[in-house]
Design brief:
Layout: H1 2-16, H2 20-32, E1 44-47, E2 50-54, H3 55-58, H4 61-66, E3 69-75, H5 80-90, E4 96-100, H6 114-126, E5 130-135, H7 139-151, H8 156-167, H9 174-186, H10 204-211
Parallel strand pairs: 2-5, 3-4, 3-5
Antiparallel strand pairs: 1-2
Helix pairs in contact: 2-9, 7-8, 7-9
GO molecular function, one term: protein tyrosine phosphatase activity
GO biological process, one term: negative regulation of MAPK cascade
Enzyme class: hydrolase
Length: 219
């Protein structure tokens, strides 16, 4: 009888525990809340001397000098010709860069690159350098910035709301969202879902537009 009661309790408890899909749904709701169109025309602070911006920001050398950026993470799978162009752009102005070959594809395992990005960022912070995370769209740099905040002790939704408020359009790749939820669980940084308000927004056509928006639109 005791065994039966214990097993029944375990099943009921498991049924009550939120699943990763529950967190994914809340995460998508937060990310799709208005405003959802365009990104700011300048980098935004992630934490301390870590910034999140667009590739257009990164390639704007006068802006990078004005922001005193000394390191840049470029989240893009580049060709050899593109790599040489990046090298020619940043070496003359003493900006150190790290190219992380992330594809904006829902099947891509972006999780494999979290630690690589975090090490580069932490090295920069230790030296007092400013570092920019950038990509050609929003999802690749967005997921790395969110993963870094989680590694620094933010919960999943704290990190997401912090950057969503600053960037408007932050993360559209659902595969990346799933991996971010798993990473937050691994780091014990999932929020208590009770009391988390994240209503669902948008018509299907609006959500399609958000998911398919890979180029920053400046407002």
């Amino acid at each position: 009888m005791d065994y039966y009661i214990r097993k029944t309790f375990e099943v009921e408890q498991r049924d009550r525990d939120p699943t990763e899909n529950d967190y994914l749904k809340k995460l998508k709701n937060i990310l799709s809340a208005p405003p959802t169109f365009g990104v700011p025309p300048e980098p935004s602070i992630v934490v301390g001397n870590v910034f999140l911006g667009s590739l257009a920001d990164a390639e704007n050398i006068p802006m990078m000098k004005a922001y005193r950026m000394e390191r840049i993470i470029i989240c893009e799978n580049v060709s050899p010709i593109r790599r040489r162009r990046i090298d020619d752009m940043f070496k003359p102005v003493d900006i150190e860069y790290n190219i992380i070959p992330i594809e904006d594809d829902e099947e891509f395992m972006v999780r494999h690159y979290f630690e690589m990005a975090h090490r580069f960022i932490n090295e920069a912070r230790t030296l007092g350098h400013r570092v920019l995370i950038a990509c050609p769209g929003v999802s690749r740099s967005g997921v790395l910035a969110l993963s870094y905040l989680i590694s620094q002790g933010f919960t999943l939704f704290e990190a997401t709301r912090s950057l969503k408020d600053k960037r408007r359009l932050l993360l559209c790749n659902e595969g990346f969202m799933k991996q971010l939820v798993s990473y937050a669980r691994e780091k014990c940084r999932l929020d208590n879902l009770e009391g988390i308000s994240a209503p669902e927004y948008g018509r299907p056509i609006d959500l399609y537009r958000i998911r398919s928006a890979h180029l920053p639109a400046f407002l």
